[in-house]
Amino acid sequence: MPLAIVFGWPVVEEFIKGAHNMDAHFVETNPRHNLPVLLALSDIWNDIYLGSSGRIVTPFTESLAAFPALCAIMESQTCTRRNDDNGSSMALAGTTTAMTPMTTTSRIATPPVVIDGGLHNIYDGVLYQTDRTLPTELVMTLDTQVTANAIGTIGKRNMMRVFDTQDALMCSLFAQADELAFGNEARDSDNVGLDGGSAGRYGGISESGRRRDSFDWGSAAKAGSDGDASLGNRSSTVLVCSKCDAFMCGQLVAMVEHRVIVKARILGIDPFVRHVGSSFREKRTEQLREELRSIMEQDTIDEDEDDDGDGHGSGGTGNGMNLSTKTILQYYANLMKQQRAFIVANNNASISSSSINSTSR
User: Fold this and answer.
1) What separation in angstroms does the CA of 332 have from each of 224, 325, 336?
2) pTM assigned to the model
3) pLDDT in tens, 260-293
4) Which domain holds residue 65?
5) Where is the composition biased (Acidic residues) (predicted)?
């Protein structure tokens, strides 16, 4: 209904058709060519076997700026449960040993946090140079419809600039994917093994040479003049859509849903558990509000009070309220009591002044 109100029912129909198209693809296509299944398996490989703790989703078009938020919501609401399909609690681990296959008795690391890479990719340092790598997901549409919509705005004379911008954006997408895969470390030409790899471990071939000599170096950039280099060997996934329209948006939404469901099923997680952290947070919020009211009703509040019995409980309220929480709430209560008393006094003074002026007239 909200989509129909904003965009009209014909657009909603196209959106539903796109979602149905992805549903049919997910049900009917062989797993070897099934996009949601392949993406879910890629995530599990990065999370379980490579020990990644998150992934960065970067849209290369402004129309998909909200796509990372959609992925983050679906991941957090579906694949971060502690309950398995039988309703029993699972033992979860934040990280696992890299390249250690998961067994039936091993602890399970649920899928990672999804980070919005932003339209300008603000996590360049994390992507290229850190030892703790994060998988990257790059999303782009071949036809951004910018060129078609720009003719009526800027005219035909400036269309070449729009074309150049679109071409540069597409090249930037694949440049980032290639840079993540191959890096730009300079190879030592004076110390080369028999097959072209740099001499070192593994029979005269360095680990870097073993990694890269199996690829085509045509798209690999050279190291910068300042000695700064990206390490390469970083996993990335490129999602390229044909056209940014309602049909494609429906496909993307359905793809994200199937992807997280497949991951949940493989990990043995119940994706439909209702009681999550937010519901427990609401209960604790109500408890703290009651405690704050009781503090507000006190005539004087001793901010320096340190009651060991109250401050070292189980983290609840009352006698078990956390000491740091209690201290800050007391300070907040003192500050708000003074502020609110001042506001009420000024308001009463203004009302009294208005009444006197009305009486004199």
Assistant:
1) 53, 10, 6
2) 0.70
3) 999 988 888 877 766 666 677 888 888 899 988 8
4) 2-184+220-267
5) 299-309
